[in-house]
Amino acid sequence: MANLIKWADFDIRILPEHDFSFRHYLSSEVCFLEHIGLFGGTFNPIHVGHLRAIQEVQNRFSLDKCYLIPAALPPHKEPGDVVDAKYRLEMIRLAISEYSDRLSSVIISDVELKRSGPSYTIDTVNHFKSILPYNSRLYLILGIDAFLEIDTWKSFSDLFYLTAFIVMTRPRGVDTEGVFKWKVLEDYIKGKISGSYKFSISRSCFVHDEKQTIFFVNIDSLDISSTEIRNLIKKGQPIKFFVPKKVEDFIITKGFYV
Predict the structure, then answer these.
(1) Do 167 and 147 form a contact (C-beta atoms < 8 A)?
(2) pTM
(3) Please, which residues bridge with residue 142 across strands?
């Protein structure tokens, strides 16, 4: 039986992990060749939370591939101590190589690093739509914090016609901040994205007649953040177990984030 959790004004039915096969929800009239995740971010640095989240999302949503896409110049972040893109890309390569047995279907894409100017998600999604088979279905993977700012993104409304969304939430944050309550999410989605989105209790997602589905999934491994890791390094504290060993060695060798 599924667990029943009461959040805000909604009774939310959370499907157990072994039942959460998103392909079960696809219409029998639609046949997709591949189901492909797009996971972008600054990755400054990449850490085990990112890697575990990718693995969990892939398993739970039956994704065939997942593209890991580092941003060259994120438009919504201050440059600050963002390490040069080529080094962040190298850390990603090191991380994936260390976890290759569990992340064999993850593909590193430097499409945003080759682009001049800020990294806009709409451009990246359009790029993948242009190079992948027409009957591939895309899933933009992002955290709840980023999703709740999506109305500030370039051409954000167009994104919901081009790709489905998998929004990762932190389960332990539900009761403390309240931002993960479904009523708050519904108000945001209907107010900022489209008033025609409807919450589907049976599917634990928001559906639309024309735009693509917005899924929400609790990820336990998201308590680690790149900001916390950088702060630990500044304080001279160890980051062992927070980042892959190869990434830790690379950071120490290069003297990043001190």
Answers:
(1) yes
(2) 0.84
(3) 167
